[in-house]
Amino acid sequence: xxxxxxxxxxLAVLSWTGCSATSANNSPAQAKVQAAPDPMLVEWTxxxxxxxxxxERRMAPDRLTVNCVAAPDVExxxxxxxxxxxxxxxxxARLGDEVAKGQVLLLINSADLALAISDYKKAQTDEALxxxxxxxxxxxxxxxxxxxxxxxxxxxxxxKALVDVGSARERIRLLGGDLERLSAVIExxxxxxxxxxxxxxxxxxxxxSLDNSPSLFTVADLSRVWMLCDVYENDLAQVRLGxxxxxxxxxxxxxxxxxxxxxxGRILDPNTRSAKVRVEMDNPRGMLRPGMFASATFVSQTxxxxxxxxxxxxxxxxxxxxxxxxxxERRFRRMEVRAGPAAPDGxxxxxxxxxxxxxxxxxxxxQFSSAIEPM
Length: 375
Fold this sequence. Notes:
The chain contains three helices and 22 strands. It folds into four domains: 43-60 and 305-371, conserved putative lor/sdh protein from methanococcus maripaludis s2 fold, CATH 2.40.420.20; 66-74 and 221-302, Elongation Factor Tu (Ef-tu), domain 3; 80-109 and 184-220, CATH 2.40.50.100; 111-183, Helix hairpin bin (Helix Hairpins), CATH 1.10.287. The protein has helices spanning 2-26, 111-142, 148-175, and strands spanning 41-43, 52-54, 56-72, 77-80, 86-91, 98-99, 104-109, 185-189, 194-199, 206-207, 217-220, 224-232, 244-249, 257-269, 274-282, 293-310, 315-317, 320-326, 331-337, 339-342, 347-350, 360-362. It has 375 residues and is α+β, with helices and mostly antiparallel strands.
């Protein structure tokens, strides 16, 4: 009997299992699927605390901000040379000094000028002798004691002597000598009034002639200077000749200056892929110094339609720009946008994309900064 019981037990277990499987097939369990929350939606408990702003459409000119450096006006810059070689005796002005037109910059003891003075004195002696010979020939010719051709020969010799004197005098003048006070010392003078922006000599140095030698000084009139701006290749279409620009010096950011584009370089720098754009500016107070860094904001002469929002409505986070568009009374959707340049009135351009004019967005995006998780 015990054996029959042990044999029947597996059959009962199998029978119970089969009934359970049949019951499961006849009434299958229903799984409840719950959608995951949208990570781009933000719920705000008190929507009245969120100020709103609308995406607006407006006509505005193109604006481009670039880096610049101040440089002397080439047309107001003069390189000072000495046409004669020699040795520097004394330097009367140095780098950075303000000089007047005709002011002596340095003194040079020149062997070239000494030779020119010697030739000049010889030419004067020869001319004086030729003049006496003409007087003597005329006296003899008047008494019939000299042929006419001999008189003409004497006159021709005098004319050549006069030419030699004139050439020697002109050479002294070109070398920088003083005909009223003949001396081998040359006074190198400034040809214009301005500032010495470059100096390439010192006391006691030898001065060569013009052959492959740098200038002794460079004098620039800094009452008007150039701002040379680097405009990258992909931004060149945004600037044109005549566009106005606001320049802010790194040294004086609170003193904006105004100017206009007067020239655009035809050659790109192969290293930076940028072209030089020149802005000419008056510098009556001398605030602009060569080498100063600045930023320039160019404003185009024409306007085009664009979408703008308050600059505070854009949140820059994780190298991306975000805005929060209102979806419902308490719901905002965070949206990635492409922000353009900012306007002086606190508005910022939104490049065409996910937003359209009339959309309501949060005016202060910083309220939602905690809603954006690191990417």
